[in-house]
Each structure stands twice: as structure tokens, then as C-alpha cells.
Design a protein that fits this description.
Strand order of the largest sheet: 5-4-3-6-7-8-17
Number of domains: 2
Shape: globular
Strand content: 25-35%
Helix content: 25-40%
Number of strands: 17
Order of helices and strands: EEEHEHEHEHEHEHEHHHEEEEEEEHHEH
Radius of gyration: 21 Å
Length: 393
């Protein structure tokens, strides 16, 4: 049992106290990619959070200090391990911030974490477990019950931008005829360490190589596709009350090619190679197109498909309804007032906005009864994360 967890069915308790002051939430950062590093930087600025360990994957980092080996700065007193068993067996941990690469076998890791009594907030999935069937849900719920722990899929998208903000906005109309959502992500902001992941999604490939890869491994069969389809189903289920079987989906992939050689922050792209790629997910209910989701990944301003580019990440939601229709656009960039403390921080703003909802979910997840937590409630930029616990429970 974790230090802030109660037994199933209990009312959520206030934040634990030490000498009259709220006890820091003890967390582990699982993953050292773009999001993991951004989360670690932000967590180290939060006195109400204590980072007790980081799980990395590079063997050379095992046993090092995360400040030096992950953030490239001074020691921060947080050890790095590359052995998952070190995390499974660790005691007195309130929450795991699970920021792994989206893969089918990540569920095994999450189940073991839950069974070991650790709450989990994942950016890599579990936003709508019901989409994957009763057996999948039962396995997760059994793990939560066994470890008296909670699981929450969270993040910018999926979760905050579509399942919460866009869905909540449908209160502006009476009936929804079609809902579309598009994410435009400038992947050049990730940095060189993200090149491998971006090449796997098709950036930097020639059209021939990309077409061959899609023929051999159809995107419909990929776990990454299911990551977004489950998000689409969550919203359409709320609006139309449909089961996964009542929603049929199709996925289209298209791309733009570089007209000249490009040297971006993350990778080099030669003329004739893919500089921007779009995955379009279409969902039909009773033969009618009800939901569309576009995922745009592009490399730098010159590859941006938008007429006007503002910031590093843009989300556009369009709701066609009766009696009203509307469009919302969200552009995210760096702080309007850069502070001295961030002058040596090259972390992309796009990474920070992805991890903020995850960090702000820690009070909710650690104080909830055991089980799966769905994305139906809001957090906000609280000056003290402890203040979110009584509001969200």
C-alpha cells in the first residue's frame, strides 16, 4: 500500500501531514525521453514533490545521479536505475509517472506496478481502457485491487485537449453532428535524442520506404493507432452512447516532401524525403461520419501545414452541431516572460505542456480509491498541488 492510498470505497483523505505541514508526494519518473526529462525538471521545482528515482534505459546511466546524466547539470540527489525490478520492489512510493514509449508490452509493466501497490499516471495509454475490451479492463482492475492502487491515463493529447476541453465545449450546442480535432506538432523542438522515434513514424523517410513500411506493418494494426482511436471512442461514446463495436474506423496517411535539404534541430532531411506526415482517423457511427482526428507531425516552421504558425503545438477543434457550430484553436509556446531560472533550460514548451496535466493529476490519483480513473474532471495551474486534492475528490 502506498503512503497516500486508502482502501477501496473510502472517502479520499486530505494530504498526509508531517509536523502539521503537507507531506511531499513521493514519485518515480518512468522514462527519460522528451517528456520524462521535462517532468523531472518541473518536479524538481516543486517543493510538494519528492522525486525518489528515475527509470532510464541506457545502461551507462545506471547508478548515476539524474541531474548529471539526464538533465546534464549538477547533482540533484535522485538516482537513476535501468532495472525495472528496482522500481517494482521500491517501498513508500506514492505515484509512478509512466512516460514510456507506446508499445503493446507496456501493459505488463503497468500491471506489475499496480500490483506492487503503486499508483500510476501514464502518458502512453490507458485513457479509455474500455475500448480494448472487458478482458483488458478486468486485468487492470484486478491489478488495482491487488495492490490497492489507482491508474490514470493522462496528458495533453490524448486527454486534456480532446477528452476534456473539447468534450466539455459541446455544452455550447444541443446536438453534435460531427466533431473534428487536429493536433499540429513541431517535432523539431524535441531535440536530437528524439530522432529514432520520429523516423519510426515516417519523418525523414523516402516515399518508397514509407510506403513499403506501411504495406508491411499497416498503421491500423499499430498500438500507436489504437492510442488515438481509443481517445476518439471516448468522446463519441459520451456524445452518442456507443460501444467500441458500434464505431468503425479507418486511417489515412499522407505526407509532404522537402523541396530542399533541411537541417532541423532534431534530424537532417534531404530533398525528396518526408518533412511532414499526417495520420487521419475517421470514425463512423451507423454509417455516418461522426468524428475525425488528424495528427500532424512536422519538422520546423518551413514544414508547418498551417497558414499561420504560432508556438510549437497547435490544437484545433471544430464542432458542427445544431443549433450551433463553432471552432476553437489553442496555440502553445514558451513563457511570455522568461525567468532567470529557465535560462539554462532548453526543454521545449511543447514538452512542458504535455507533462503539466500529468503532474497536476498526482493529488487526485494518490488520494482516490483503488481502480481506474477516467478523464472527466479538471485540474488547473495550482501554486500548491496539495490544494487540488479536496477539489477533485
Amino acid at each position: 500500500m502506498t503512503t497516500t492510498q486508502q482502501t477501496p470505497g473510502e472517502t479520499a483523505a486530505a494530504a498526509p501531514q508531517i509536523d502539521g505541514s503537507p507531506k511531499p508526494y513521493r514519485v518515480v519518473v518512468w522514462g527519460t525521453g522528451n517528456l520524462g526529462r521535462a517532468a523531472l525538471r518541473e518536479l524538481m521545482r516543486r517543493p510538494e514533490i519528492e522525486v525518489v528515482a528515475v527509470l532510464g534505459h541506457n545502461p551507462s546511466r545506471h547508478g548515476t545521479d539524474a541531474g548529471e546524466s539526464i538533465l546534464g547539470g549538477a547533482k540533484i540527489g535522485v538516482p537513476v536505475t535501468t532495472d525495472k525490478d528496482d522500481i517494482y520492489t521500491m517501498r513508500d512510493v506514492d505515484c509512478i509517472l509512466h512516460m514510456a514509449t507506446v508499445t503493446p508490452d507496456m501493459t505488463d509493466d503497468v500491471v506489475r506496478l499496480l500490483e506492487s501497490g503503486k499508483n500510476v499516471i501514464s502518458s502512453a495509454g490507458f485513457h479509455n481502457p474500455a475500448y480494448h475490451g472487458e478482458e483488458f479492463v478486468a486485468r487492470l482492475e484486478k491489478a488495482c485491487t491487488s495492490g490497492n492502487s489507482s491508474l490514470c491515463g493522462n496528458g495533453l493529447h490524448p486527454n486534456l485537449m480532446f477528452e476534456r476541453l473539447t468534450l466539455a465545449s459541446t455544452a455550447l450546442t444541443s446536438r453534435v453532428e460531427h466533431i473534428s480535432f487536429a493536433e499540429y506538432a513541431d517535432c523539431s523542438a524535441i531535440g536530437p535524442e528524439g530522432e529514432g522515434i520520429l523516423r519510426r513514424v515516417g519523418l525523414g523517410a523516402t516515399p518508397e520506404v514509407l510506403q513499403a513500411a506501411l504495406a508491411e506493418n499497416p498503421i491500423e494494426d499499430s498500438w500507436l493507432a489504437q492510442y488515438y482511436v481509443e481517445s476518439l471512442h471516448f468522446v463519441l461514446n459520451k456524445i452518442y452512447g456507443i460501444s467500441p463495436a458500434e464505431m468503425t474506423t479507418s486511417i489515412d496517411v499522407d505526407w509532404d516532401l522537402a523541396t530542399a535539404d533541411m537541417d532541423t534541430n532534431v534530424m537532417k532531411v534531404h530533398k525528396g524525403e518526408v518533412m511532414a506526415i499526417r495520420n487521419t482517423y475517421k470514425a463512423h457511427v451507423d454509417g455516418v461520419l461522426r468524428g475525425t482526428m488528424d495528427q500532424y507531425y512536422y519538422l520546423g516552421e518551413q514544414a508547418c501545414p498551417l497558414d499561420e504558425r504560432v508556438g510549437q503545438t497547435t490544437h484545433i477543434a471544430i464542432v458542427q452541431g445544431d443549433p450551433t457550430s463553432y471552432q476553437m484553436r489553442f496555440d502553445a509556446g514558451g513563457s511570455l516572460r522568461p525567468s532567470v531560472e529557465r535560462e539554462d533550460d532548453s526543454t521545449a514548451a511543447a514538452a512542458y505542456i504535455c507533462v503539466m496535466p500529468i503532474i497536476q493529476a498526482v493529488p487526485k490519483v494518490t488520494s482516490s480509491p483503488a481502480g481506474i480513473i477516467m478523464p472527466e474532471e479538471f485540474t488547473y495551474a495550482a501554486s500548491d498541488l496539495h490544494s487540488l486534492a479536496p477539489i477533485l475528490n
